[in-house]
Design brief:
The chain is of the alpha+beta class. The protein is 36% helix and 19% strand.
Length: 396
Amino acid sequence: MNKTCFTIVFTLFILSLFTLFSCEHSQPLPTIELTAESFQFDQKNSCEITYFDNAIQFTESGKIKCRGGSSSGFPKHSFTFKMAHQRSLAGLPSQRTYILNANYIDKTMMRHKICFDLFREMNPEKNLASQCAYVNVITNGKPVGLYVLMQKLNAGSLGLNKKDSLAMIFKDPPIFYGENRLEWVQEPGNYFQQNFPDIEEKDLNGYMENVMQFIINANDSIFAHDIGHLFDLENILDWHLLLMFTNNGDGVMKNFYLYKRDSFTPFRIAIWDYDDSFGRDGEGELKMTKSLPNFDRCLLLNRLQNSPYFNYDECLRQRYKELRDAGLFSKKHIQKMIEANDKIIRKDVERNFKIWPIDGIGYYDSKSYEEELEIMLQYLDIRIPQLDKELGYSAH
C-alpha cells in the first residue's frame, strides 16, 4: 500500500471512530434540579433552582408552584418557577420566570414544541409562541424525567411597550363566546382574565367588553371596515389555519393569549397548549380526524366567514396555498421537525419511560414512543389531502 492510500484509509478510520464516539457520547441535555420543602398547586413556595449543562452551573433562589388544569391529575407534574435574577436557561431568551411542562399525556414530548415552532415559522414577525428546549429534571434529589422548558409569555416576550396605556395581555379571554358566556367566569373581578397590566393597577376588562360587543353587534359593513384595524387578520388567518392543520379543536375557544403591544397595533393571538394535535386529543385519546374543530362556535371566525362584505374564505384559501407552496404545511417538513427533536431527546425519552411507564395512569393505550411518532405521520397522510380538497389546493 502506497503512502497516499495509507493516509486515506487512516483518515477514514479516524473519522469513523470520531463518528462512533460522537453518536455514543452525544452532548447530554441540561439538567434542572429543584429543591423545595413542598411542591403545591395552590401556592408558591421558596425553592432553590440548580442548573447545569456541559458549560454552565449555577444555583438561584426562587419561588415555585405546580401548574396545570386537567393535567394536574397526572402523576408527573408541571411547574412554574421564578428566579431571583434573570438568566438564560438551555439557550432560551433570558427571563426570571420559566415553565417546566411535564408533557405527560404526549408520549412524543413534541406536539407543543412543533406547533409553536411551526406557528413562528409561518410569520416570524407576527406569530408568537413560547420558545422551548428539552431538559431533565430532578426534584429533591429524585429524577423525574424529561421536561419541556418553556419561555413564559409575558409583556417582555410578547414585545409590549409597558409605558403605553393600551398595552395589554389576556389569557384565554372568553371574548369569542358572545352572550353564551355567563358560566365562564374563573376569576371574580377579572372576567376576561387580564394578565397584563396588573388588574389592581389598571383594569382593562371594560375595554375588552367593548371589543366583544363590537364583534357581536357591529353591523356588517362597519364590521368589515373596522375588523382589520382591531385584529391583525394575517395573524388570525395563520391561527385559524394552524388549528385546521393540527386538528386542535381545543384551541378554538381557549389556549391562547390575546395581546396588544401598544395603542397603535391591533390585537394578535399567541398560541398556547397544543397537545390536542396531530392525531391525539388533549386528554390523550386517539382521534386522528374523527372529530374536527367547530369554528362556527367562535364568534370572530364565524362573523369573518359569513361577512357579505369581506371575502375571508378566499383569504384563507390563498394563505393555505402560500403555506403549502412554501413547504411549511407538508408531511416532509413536519417529519424533519420530528426527526430533529427525536435526535435530541431519544435517549432521554427512554429513561423518562422507565420512570413513567407507557401504560401508566391516564393513558388510553400503551403505545410506545416510536408508535406515537408514527401516529403523527399517519395523521398527516389523512389530514393534508382533506385540507387540500376543502381549500381547493393543487400542487403545481
